[in-house]
Write a structure and sequence with these properties.
heterodimer, A: mainly alpha, B: 2 domains, six-stranded mixed sheet, 28% strand, globular
């Protein structure tokens, strides 16, 4: 029998594939753009806040897309117990909101101290928090409404 | 106990029931089929449709081999998958395109799936309590119901355990206890002995019979084992799926 070489196996895994890889690339892209163009102003608007929102969106979507066995079992149980899609979506939204809020806490404190609670930065922060919630909820909703998800009940 | 074997109402499924045909059915399926398209053709489950009625106090077993669509039928009944043709009624209302939650609002339904379903980070008692909160059971009643249900399945000692620490048989009983706690009118159980050894299986089947006999719970159960199906009052016998190739040629079962 021919012995399989390790080179084809390694090569076949080199190219990024799947939604999580895409989101990871978007996060790195946002970070790199922020490093190089963060202070640039286009049409009176800073690029930095837009990159913040972009990285929040991709990070939350990446977190929600990672489908661990434990999370899958939790979601299967929730539906088996009679939870509605709306409830699961709201749960994901709030988790995303919590993640972004905690991650931005230092930034919020800093901006509030220097510019006050009602500055333009706070609008960006609020937008980022909402975008984070939505970005966390959507992959969960797509996953739990798919046929692949339902197949898991079959053992 | 009366056990009626299949006699072939149609080429793919056959149906006999002992009771419940004249009362309003909790569940009725009318020539339900489901097709799975592949590049080479279509896999057809229940080629000529599954038609059945389940009324109060019925206990129906769906008997069939592996890959014949037992779990898919459970998913169709619960609204987790949609049929390619046919209709599903709960309490006389067409719910073919409606969700599990909507179906539960028409007939109080609980499901025990082939794969154990419990939230891993909650204890056994907390899992039951969450299920009761989804079923809108008042907070005051929940503890009592959890105790009662765990007691029925001999799980009192495990109420503070986490699902991951339990054996397959214990997890199956936790699922059944969760279903019982909701006090459903209709219980759907997919392969209750699927991952259990014979001693654990021997514990579960009498429990199901007890739920039906003592609590009057209507039960739809799938199984691949005739000895498990023998516990039920009526039997739906599935036939193997057929694969129809792209040239519209039946390839076989």
């Amino acid at each position: 029998m021919e012995k399989p070489g390790w080179v084809p196996i390694v090569i076949s895994g080199v190219l990024p594939r799947g939604v999580p890889d895409l989101f990871a690339m978007v996060i790195v892209l946002a970070a790199s753009l922020n490093a190089s163009l963060g202070s640039t102003v286009l049409a009176g608007l800073g690029i930095g806040p837009a990159l913040l929102v972009l990285s929040v969106m991709a990070s939350c979507a990446l977190a929600a897309s990672s489908n661990s066995a434990r999370r899958l079992r939790e979601e299967l149980a929730l539906f088996a117990y009679g939870s509605s899609t709306r409830m699961v979506g709201l749960r994901g939204f709030l988790r995303g909101v919590a993640c972004v809020f905690l991650a931005l806490l230092f930034y919020i404190a800093l901006e509030a101290r220097t510019l006050g609670l009602f500055s333009g930065s706070m609008i960006i922060i609020c937008l980022a928090i909402v975008v984070g919630g939505v970005s966390y909820a959507l992959p969960i909703l797509f996953r739990t409404r798919s046929l692949d998800f339902v197949e898991n009940y079959k053992g | 106990m009366l056990f009626l074997s299949s006699s072939g109402l149609g080429p793919w499924t056959s149906w006999r029931t002992t009771r419940g045909s004249k009362m309003t059915s909790l569940l009725e399926t009318v020539t339900v089929t489901i097709d799975y398209p592949y590049s080479e053709g279509v896999l057809k489950l229940y080629d000529e449709g599954v038609s059945m009625k389940i009324g109060k106090g019925d206990f129906t077993a769906v008997l069939g081999g592996s890959g014949w669509g037992k779990s898919t039928l459970v998913n169709l009944v619960l609204g987790l998958e949609k049929p390619s043709a046919g209709a599903v009624y709960f309490n006389g209302e067409d719910v073919t395109r409606r969700s599990f939650v909507k179906r539960c609002s028409l007939v109080r339904t609980a499901a025990v799936f082939q794969r154990p379903t419990a939230i891993p980070q909650l204890t056994v008692a907390q899992n039951l309590s969450v299920a009761l909160s989804f079923a809108s059971v008042p907070r005051k009643e929940r503890d009592e119901r959890v105790r009662e249900s765990l007691g029925f399945f001999g799980l009192e000692m495990l109420s503070r355990s986490y699902p991951d620490a339990l054996s397959a048989g214990q997890r199956r009983r936790v699922d059944l206890a969760r279903a019982l706690a909701v006090r459903p009118d209709f219980l759907v159980v997919d392969e209750p002995t699927g991952d259990l050894d014979s001693s654990a299986s021997n514990l579960v089947m009498p429990l199901l019979r007890g739920l039906n006999h003592d609590h009057g719970m209507a039960i739809l159960m799938t199984t691949a084992l005739p000895r498990c199906a023998a516990v039920a009052k009526s039997l739906l016998h599935l036939k193997p799926p057929v694969f129809v190739s792209s040239e519209n040629r039946m390839v076989g079962h």
